[in-house]
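## retry 2 of 3
previous attempt timed out at serialization; input unchanged, resubmitting
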Amino acid sequence: MVSIKENYERLQARIGGAAQRSGRGAGDISLVAVTKNASVQAILEAQACGIGLFAENRVQDAEAKIPLVPGAGWHMIGHLQTNKIRTALPLFQCVQSLDSVRLAREMNAELLPQNKVMPVLLEVNISTEPQKFGFRPEEIYAAVDEIKSLTQLEVQGVMGIAPNTGDIQARRAAFKKLKGVFTVLKSMKSERFQMKHLSMGMSDDFEVAIEEGSNMIRLGRALFGGKK
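## retry succeeded, writing output
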């Protein structure tokens, strides 16, 4: 059975190759380890390899795992229901899945009495699949105008998921679309609006995502093994 350490070493080589093809180095790419199907022991093994940033899809799973993995950073990457905001915000250092103006407003209202600022990424639905969450690319700019006015949110980038298809060119086209959105938004700098992170690429397509400009990839199965 292949170990997490061996998986990580192979991934580092693949990340480095893809980064080189895009004119960058492996150090320019942040790896976020997705723990959706991983045990706490597996997460600790990944942490021992030097991985410091993890992500969860579900708030209840994060509640169970995060206290058992001291010293790690955690991102929320699943759809955040408004009734879970109060529980979620103390657990995570970033919410990558900010997918509506309503969610932004309610997060801001929860953070305001605490005088706390939360880093977020705007989730953009680049797959055009109706079951996926996120802002449509054509509506993101209007949404940004309102989100920029919310004092307790710091927008640090965008996140997207490629279409669920075996057609790698369709995935590449989706990544190009998100890179275009990222580039436009990068010109709209303000105090709490800085486009640092282009979060795209998962276990099946991270090399293509890096080639198209991603600087943050989210890997679960490729690191931990098991289900997608």
